[in-house]
Structures are given as C-alpha cells and as structure tokens.
Amino acid sequence: MNWINELISGTSVGHSILLLAVIVSAGILFGKIKIKGISLGATFILFVGIICGHLGLKIEPKLLDFLRDFGLILFVYAIGMQVGPSFFSSFKKGGMTLNLLAVGVVLLGAITALIIGFATGIDIPTMVGIMSGAVTNTPGLGAAQQAFKEMTGDVNSTMAMGYAVAYPLGVIGIILTMIVVKVLFKVDFKKENEQIETLAKDAQKSATGISMQVLNPSVFGKTIKELVKLFPDRHFIVSRHWDNETNQISLATSETVLKENDKIFVIANPTDIDTITAFIGKAIDLQRKQWVLANSSFISSRILVTKEEVNGKRLGSLQLRKLYGCNITRVNRSGVDLVASEELVLQIGDQVNVVGTDINIASVEKVLGNSVKRLNQPNLITIFIGIAIGVILGSIPVAIPGVPQPFKLGLAGGPLIISILIAKFGYKWKLITYTTQSANLMLSEIGISLFLACVGLNAGNGFWDTIVNGGYSWVGYGFIITFLPLLIMGIVGYKFCKVNYFTLTGVIAGSYTDPPALAYANGLTSKDAPAVGYATVYPLTMFFRVLIAELMVLFFV
Questions:
Q1: Contact present, 481 and 507 (Cβ < 8 Å)
Q2: For residues 310 and 547, what is the distance between their CA atoms, to the nearest angstrom?
Q3: Which residues are registered as beta bridge partners of 330?
Q4: Helix, strand or coil, per DSSP, at residue 340
Q5: Among 193, 201, 446, 545, which residue has the least CB neighbours within 10 Å?
Q6: 37 conformational bin, left if phi > 0, alpha if psi -120 to 50, beta if neither
Q7: Confidence class of residue 503 from pLDDT cuts 50, 70 and 90?
Q8: How far is CA 313 from CA 319, 340, 373, in A?
C-alpha cells in the first residue's frame, strides 16, 4: 500500500500529475454549474486548488513554479497568436482610449491601496501584497518583494500572505465588475455582437463585387492595365469582360481593351467602389451568377494556400494570370475577403478565389498547394521559437532612473508581445503562423488550467489560518481595491467613451493582467473582442503594474 500513499501524498512526478489532473477536472466540472445563468468556468480550478492546498496536498515548490509559469506562457502565447493579425489596427482605432482606461484603473488601484493603508494603519509592504493579489498581478508582487529585500536585506512574509488572501476574491471582483456594468447599463449582447461585426467590416479591406458599364469616353480604347494605373491609391481587380459587340464573356486580362458599352465585373474595396464607378460609367444590375451562366467555359474555385514556398510571397510575383490564364479575384483570410491586389502578401491558410478553366485552375492548385491535410499539421517550430524569444525578451532588465530594481516584462509579457509580432509579421521571416482554431484553443485551455491549479495550491496553505487570525479584513480591503477602480473606469469606458461591452471586458481583464477573468470574458461571446481588448492593454498595463508596486515600496517604506 506504500505506492498508494506515495501517489496521494508523496513528492513523485506521478503524484504531481495526478493532483493536477484531479484539480483541473474537478474545477472544470464544478465551473459548469450556473447560478442565475452565471458560471465561473475554468476560474473554478483556482478554488479547487486552494481547497487541496488547505488540505495539505502539495507539489514540490520548484516543479510547482515551473508548471505555473509554463502554463501562463502557453496561455498568453495562444492569446497573442489569436489577436496578432488585428492587434495593430485595433490599437490605431481606439487603442489609445483603451490603454488610457487601463492606466486609469492602475492608478486608481494604487491610490485606493494607499488610502486604505494610511487609514487602517496596515504597513505598506502588506498593502502592496494585498493590492497585488487584488489585481491578480504576480509580477508586481515579485518586483515589490525584490525591491523590499534590496532596501532592507530581509524578506517580508506578510506581503506574500496578503497576496494569497486577496487573490481569490480579486478574481471574483473582476468578474463581478463585468456583471455589474452589464446590469447597470442593461447591455444587449446581440447588439454588442452586431456592433463588433460592423466595426470589423469597416476596419477590414473587405472585397465586394460589382457590375459596371463602360460609358466614360476617357476609358474607351484603354487596356485594363492602363485603367488600373489611373487609380494608384485604389485596390480593385477587373475579373471578367463582356464585349458589347460580340456579346461574349471572357476573363479580363491586363491587355483587355475596353470599348463603349462594354460590361465589366469588378472586385474592389467598398470605400473605393463609388470613385471607380463614377469614372468608368455606371453600376448595372447584373448578378455575379449571370457572369458564370452566360459562358460555361470557365469556373470559379477556391484554393487553399498550403505550400511553404508561397508563404510570404506577393500575389503579383506568382504571375498566375500570365502563366496560367487565371484571374485571382479575392483572398479570404480568417473569414474576411481581401482584394487580390498584386501587393497582397499570401500566408498559409489563405483561401484564394480563382477564375479560369478546369485545366488552368488545376495548374494553379499545384502552385498554391490546396492540401487540407497539411493545414491540420501543427507548426510547432514557430510556437517554440516564439516562446524562446519571448522568454529572452521578458528576462531583459530595463533600468529606470531613480528606481533601484530594473523593470522586466516577465514570463508572461515577453511571450505575449512576441506572439503578437509573429502572428502579424512572421511571414516576412518565412515562419508559418497558421494554426487551426481548435489547436489554438487547446493550447490556451491547457495553459490556463495549469496556471490556475498551481496558483490555487500555492495560496491554499495557511489560507484559512490567515483569515481566522484577522486576515479576513484583508479580504475586504482587497475587494475594495479590486472593485472600485474597475467600476469607475468601466462606467467611464462604456457610458462616456462608448467602448463595446465585450471589448471592455477584455480591457477590464487586461488592466488586472488576469487570465481567469479573460477566460470568463471569452465565454460571453464567440467574437475575439475580449482577447483583442486584453492584448491591446496588457503590455502597457504590465509595465505600470510592476512599476507602481516597486514605487510604493521605494517611496512609502
């Protein structure tokens, strides 16, 4: 029976894996329970971990630290890969507002903590620990502990205990803020989703097809190539040409000559259509299917880009129209149709709309790949290269004048930033950044589950004793630090800044750098808005969280 005791209460690898498996599975199971339509989801793993820690179950400290940090890295890296393609455009369109809201939350939290500390007589190191737990920011706690040790040469134990006591209710407080804002403003999820879809359509260069009749004498006798040169700042493709004299439909090539009353089918950005139409002639009521039915010698087909050699290449450099007699009319990327301009850079996973004959399309298929099986294979090398570079970036110390301890992005901030950059620009270095939605979700869920289980185990030991011996007041103070700044800035963000509710939930989670709250926010909608909001404010917030915690110790101890 010794093997059973070792498995349940020992220190072996088998014990650690068994304990984590039980905590995660039980947490997910209980997290599905809904009270008035609300459930904590994966967040419940944290509380199961606390219970197990309180019962004396534990994992060897170094192994616990590794699993916690590695889980966090996996989670934030998956988040970065998910939001990377839209991160920078999101920052340009309202990102400054989101970051100002997040910084406001950080500053209000620090002010609230200082007021409570001076009013109650609790020493500042303990208040910094309570604040770090209340805002669920472990790097801030670590930075404050290092600053305290550098100043005094000693370790303050109450700082870590304040963190452990305030952390669980901190998670609840963040989620509760999201719920209160929803109830306070009677948020309609359907309208918020529609708003996200509208904003997404406006932000993307979505391709739209339109039929036109050539009526402008300035266009008569010009080739398609010459026509395109007249609009250097507009992106459009002339896909098909209907000759008015012969009544024949053909694929439009760069040498196709336009004549009076000819008809053309154009693919363009919605913002460019009116300008192009006004110059060429007028829009006509001729549906896309009529172009196909009028002449069955060519077909339209979608081909997947799956060949590594094509990844990162400009569409024009492939010369598909010249070599194979096919037109590329649009490229679908992550559900959005893009105009197939010559400057468009192809990426693995793109769906290319090709118009041509069966034989010619088959030739293009060989160039692009069109192998669904290859897309299903995970590109692990890109993931681990990104994690490696992210860890290096997160470990670089940055000296700040007047602050004895250098600032670091940490094991969460570094990988998050790198994953965003790789998702957006990885193709330039021939890195394949495509991952299926299910693979990215699996990576994310495994990461957050490991992180929550380990944090709960670590906080469970001594948790109850601290509460009984007066620490229960710390829980209340922590909740005030959690809830009050978020509620104020949440109202400002939704009521006055008109931030979409789902984006705001991501900002709320990101302003506290809290993965469990983000997991809850992600469960509210099928859109990426919470993740985009989280990733938009996370880097700057992480910097301020660490800096504020250090400054509070340096100036008030």
A1: no
A2: 44
A3: 339, 353
A4: coil
A5: 201
A6: left
A7: very high
A8: 11, 13, 22
The C-alpha atoms of residue 411 and residue 72 are separated, in whole angstroms, by 8
Q: List, in order of start, the domains of the chain with CATH numbers.
A: 60-200+378-393+407-422+446-556 (no CATH), 205-374 (3.30.70.1450)
CA distance 196 to 183: 20
On the question of pLDDT at 241 being above 80, the answer is: yes
Cα–Cα distance, 394 to 546 (Å, whole number): 13
Q: Looking at residues 425-441, what average pLDDT do you find?
A: 75
Nearest-CA neighbor of 471 among 129, 36, 27?
A: 129
The number of angstroms, rounded, from the C-alpha of 349 to the middle of its chain's C-alpha atoms is: 18
Query: What was the pLDDT predicted at 259?
Result: 92
Burial tier of 296 (Cβ tally within 10 Å: 0-12, 13-18, 19+): exposed
Model's pTM, two decimal places?
Answer: 0.65
353 near 328, Cβ under 8 Å? Answer: yes
Cβ–Cβ < 8 Å for 178, 508 = yes
Whether 451 contacts 72, CB under 8 Å: yes
Model pLDDT, residue 293: 46
Q: 105 near 485, Cβ under 8 Å? A: yes
Report the DSSP beta bridge partners of residue 210.
266
DSSP tag of 154 = S
